[in-house]
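re: that complex we talked abt at group meeting.

here r the seqs, copy pasted straight from the sheet so there may be weird spacing, ignore it
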Amino acid sequence: MFVTKHAAELCALLVNDLYGELPSRILAALFTKGRSTITQLGLYTQLGPRQIRNGLGVLIQQNLLYHHTDADTKRTTYEANPGACYNLVRSGKILEMIESQYGKAERDLVQTLLLLGYARIAELTHAYVSRAPRSNGHANGNGVNGADSGLIESEAELHNVLSHLIRCEIIETVRPQSFRNPNDVYHEIEAEVTKTAPGEKATKTKIDQQRQIMEQYRAFKDQPKALKRQLDQFGGPVTKRRKLGNGLGEEDRAMEDDMPPLNPNVVVRVNYDKCLVELRSHRLASFAKDTLGEVTGEVYRTLLGLLTMDVSRCRADPFLGEESIAQQATATTMDVYEHLDESINVTTGIGKAPKDKIDYQSAEKIKTAPAGNDLMADDSDEDPSGPFDSDDSDDMGTKGSFSRRSRSVSKTNGARPTKVTFEDAATSTDNRLDQMRAHLLLLAESKHRFVRHCGTQGRGQWTVDFDQVMERLRETELDASIEQSFGRHGLRLTRILREKGKLDEKMLPSAALMKKTDVQAKMLAMQMAGLVDVQEVPKDNTRVANRTLFFWFFDRERSQAQILDDLYKAMVRALQTLQVERHRERNILSFVERKDVMGKEEEVMTAEHYNKYNRHLEEQNKLLGQVMRLDEMVSIFREY
Amino acid sequence: MSTSAAGAGPSRSNGSSDADSAKLAVLKELLYERCREEGDMFSQDDLLRMEVIPNRDLLLLARVVQSLSDDKLFITMREASGQVLWKWRDKQEAHKYKQCTTDEQVMVYSLIDDSGGDGIWTQTLQKRLNMHDSVLKNAIKQLQAKGLIAPFKNVEHPNKKMYIKASIRPSDRATGGPWYTDQDLDEAFIEDLQRVVFDFIKRQSSYHSTHAGAAKAAHGHAQVPKKGIIKGGLSDAAAKGKKRDATEMEAKPVAPTTAAKNPLAVSSSTAAASRREPALLPLPAGYMAYPTVRDIARLLSSSGITNNTILSEGDVKKLVDVLVWDNLVEPIKVAGKVGYRVSRIAKQSVESWAGREDPSGRSGGPELYISPLTEAPCGRCPVFDLCEEGGPVGPSNCEYFKKWLGKEIF
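got the structure back, here u go
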């Protein structure tokens, strides 16, 4: 990961917030100086070796460092792991996601693991068994345990939950190798494979070598999943993910009772890559919700849940290249239908149109390959042999009347006085399926290309080209921030440049329907902000201004990098403001932290102080909420 | 015969030369009329073929044509191949040349005449004619006084002093087309048109769902037209659009009263419609009746919003393109034809955007996605680049954060 100054600052700040100043100082030194040994760190930070060792201990326990001991020199070097540091800010989001997707017990376990960094299974067992009689007494104090909270109460239960999460790849095993920088490992493997002994001829071909490197690297990457594979062998296929929001976790886990006991010496930690996949699905669903509506978003979420079941990371590993996500998962309409939450009313959310205004051929078009970038280019061929033509138009017809009934009959658009046909409950399943399909088709038709209709089995197969959708999402975010900083006109100009590439200055005003002077002012402002830039092409060698062409262009990558850095900085500032606020209210806060005050603040404190305290809590919520939202954007630009 | 006689005896009596010139006048008239009937440009052969000139007499033709050219009824042109062609000029136009009293005036006027609707720059005139500055200025002044030429501004070169014939309108290129009024880009016009187009697309590309009776009371007939059969809906919408926009655009000073009424109506309606707000829903996939550029152009022309400006389909396409670039609408291709629909349909309000006096221009307007970055102070901070802990501006003394957190600045 490329670390900017603000990213490093943010990571140090997060560590400072959670683990104190000592690790934070060491981390900051590692960020600025790069890979270092303990002696070097001592020089950089002016700390004693003892303190440094303490600090490093904390950092390693939390997986925030890479370290490596060279086999020959026996020297250990330490290096910051910026990705892991940044992930600290996401803990809350991950926990929330785990709870909604998997259940309370899973959330509890993941929370424990996040607190511990990594832990041996034996330690976990010990902790949970010893704590079992009491209600949850966590440092974080989530005092919301009801009687049927579904928390882990026995060793067997713990193992069930654990193996479930391991099989879902949320939890991975830790080995000494896990603390090595993947870049290093790759280069080491590369060096190992390409090295020739003295006198030996380099007989292997380049391709052969490359394949060997890939294999070894993949073996390294797959190490943490060894346990998952082992479990998979015993437990058959992965149990289906629980549906959203219903509390049927027990049965799910009960099915895994015949698992072999987990080796108590295995060390486990949370696998952020997989968590990010889940978070991405969440974000995409809300994107769809934002563009097309609530119900459509829910359908999309279900589909994403099915498609990402076996996706272990959002982006392909740069070293492994495309291969790792080569085989694209598809889901059929029936699959989606089975997993769709019962409570979602798919009859709503789509308007109705007269049957003769719907072109089923283009709606049902099958696209077997991801479309190119041009929206208009792809539909030139109209193949009339859609297998759904006849029967689907019928279904749509009934659908129209059905949705009419489900809403109210008194509509402003009662233009057609056709009689409402009341269907019996017997056909409602079919109807529901068709209505859900309508949502999927809507998603496929959107300019954001949420899904691709890629086959006809099982009433239609669907897949998601994540690269494309994410590119659209990034674009949307970028557009929004341009729109809000430079107005509609700024957005218009950059979008013109994005569409047309480099464009002569003289062309812009007429295309954008803006005054020449306005265009120039806007472009200059945006050039200052680094969004657009100008290229001068002299027509002859006099290079006078009126014999020169000026081409404006928009550098997408640079603006994305820039916005990312701005996001880091905004996050840092929000967190720093929080610190300032905390410092300002330090008297009240230290009072509240007292054991005898905690939990009964309202009784103990004076009204004035209590109000102040409450206001501070509100501000804290606002600031942290903002940080979370910014993180959402960071993930969009960086990880998803 | 007669030409040779005329040529042989120039010193003949006055009577014969009178007859000669009378004959010439008749021939001139004939040839001119024939040309007007026949077409645009004529070569020498074309003129001979008209059989106006007896015996296909070349010399006579030369005299006739020369005379016509002198009277400015013929324009002489030269093709790239070197062939000489003639074009006829309107008699009234030709008469204007007669008003030019000096040669300079004729030369200047003919250049301006040639430049047509695009007009001509004074510098170009001077370069072509190689006249003295004062002579040129004098000629221009006199021509202007006679009402033959008029100064005008070309939008492409707003700083150049240009002249055009007083009798014709500047070309579209010189005026900038329908988007310009008095050589200025009419931004208010464009903005209002955009709103009308946006509203139209929004109405036509969404399903307007009202829930039960809640919305009925307050909104009632003030609502957007219903989705019906597209043809009826179009004219309906057009009529409606015309009514509303005309009143709003004309009665700008009076508008505050209606604008003041609008929010009231909206707030009362939201109060009445307790939870179930009317909302826009996307239309099913494959919907074919999304408005096309042609539909929009038809709406604009039939509604008469554009007063006396005529918008071609290309102009409307430009307008819609801008809306697409603004992320307000999106193109969608169904069954081989490109229609437009509103972006982010789920979040758009059912109110119409056009004809509002709201200075922020936001109410009823398109709902855009708000970036989290710009919502917080940092995203809009004017000194974001300077902000540094320990610097002149920093988190510890940030005014914007204070305001954002709702703290008074003490």
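couple things i noticed - Residues 292-370+388-410+422-464 of chain A form one domain. Confidence is low (pLDDT under 50) at residues 134-148, 239-257, 373-426 of chain A.
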